[in-house]
């Protein structure tokens, strides 16, 4: 299959059937990985003076064996996401990798309102390698389309969308592109819909105003998770 032919076709749905066993194994592994995700996320700050030094320090925290802390929020979240993704994709390595990376990015963004390049950018080549084969070109097109779309939104309203969100969009667009055009649209719209509902909730409960700011990354990630669960094999 030529690159042009592969790019012209809508990516086929995931071929692996839902697997409860894979879900249980992945959830258990996810809880263990969640300990490392929590420690990695704690290494990133809202406004570091030196992002490279910050990244070295954050990843350096993984050299020692961390232990779960109570309450284990991050561990439980990682277990739940990995379990759901493994169940729906049959433990597809590309989507399991994205799940762990996504939890880390979501936790960091929720805590610091940042999406560090040290987490986002290295994930691009890894995800691309895991999507090698018939899914590669649809994934590449999906990532490029997401970068263009979110880049235009950032250019038009830089005060409401961070450039870290643009870079995250390209990563998520690759995964959604591998699932097909419908999943890509569902994931993109889902993130905006969830963010709008959250903003409406803030207004309804008087916990925010029309000018309130909140991290958008977690909603992008939730929208993508929803699209993966929806587009997976039934």
TrEMBL record:
Q: Which GO terms describe its molecular function?
A: aspartic-type endopeptidase activity
A cellular component annotation (GO) from this entry: plasma membrane
Question: Which keywords, in A-to-Z order, does the entry hold?
Answer: Membrane, Transmembrane, Transmembrane helix
Presence of keyword Nucleus: no
The record's annotation in InterPro entries points to: Prepilin_IV_endopep_pep, Prepilin_peptidase/N-MTase
Record bears the keyword Protein biosynthesis: no
Q: Give the signal peptide, or none.
A: none
Sorted alphabetically, which Pfam families does this protein's record hold?
Peptidase_A24
Sections of the chain in a coiled coil: none
GO annotation, biological process: signal peptide processing
Q: Start and end of every Prepilin type IV endopeptidase peptidase domain?
A: 97-198
Q: Which residues cross the membrane?
A: 139-156, 168-194, 214-232
Into which family does the record put it?
Belongs to the peptidase A24 family.
Designated name of the protein: Prepilin peptidase
Q: What is the organism of origin for this protein?
A: Bailinhaonella thermotolerans
The major lineage groups are: Bacteria, Bacillati, Actinomycetota, Actinomycetes, Streptosporangiales
């Amino acid at each position: 299959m030529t690159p042009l032919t592969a790019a012209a076709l809508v990516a086929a749905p995931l071929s692996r059937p839902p697997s409860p066993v894979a879900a249980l194994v992945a959830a258990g592994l996810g809880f263990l990985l969640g300990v490392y995700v929590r420690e990695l996320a704690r290494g990133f700050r809202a406004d570091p003076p030196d992002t490279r030094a910050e990244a070295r320090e954050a990843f350096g925290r993984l050299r020692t064996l961390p232990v779960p802390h109570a309450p284990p929020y991050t561990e439980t979240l990682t277990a739940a996401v990995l379990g759901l993704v493994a169940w729906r994709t049959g433990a597809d390595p590309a989507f399991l990798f994205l799940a762990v990376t996504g939890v880390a990015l979501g936790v960091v963004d929720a805590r610091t309102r940042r999406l560090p390049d040290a987490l986002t950018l290295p994930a691009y080549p890894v995800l691309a390698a895991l999507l090698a084969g018939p899914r590669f070109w649809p994934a590449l097109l999906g990532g490029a389309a997401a970068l263009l779309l979110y880049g235009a939104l950032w250019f038009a309203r830089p005060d409401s969308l961070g450039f870290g969100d643009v870079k995250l969009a390209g990563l998520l667009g690759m995964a959604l592109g591998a699932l097909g055009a419908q999943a890509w649209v569902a994931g993109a719209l889902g993130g905006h819909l969830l963010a709008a509902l959250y903003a409406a909730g803030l207004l309804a409960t008087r916990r925010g105003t029309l000018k309130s700011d909140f991290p958008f990354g977690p909603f992008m990630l939730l929208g993508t998770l929803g699209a993966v669960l929806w587009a997976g094999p039934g």
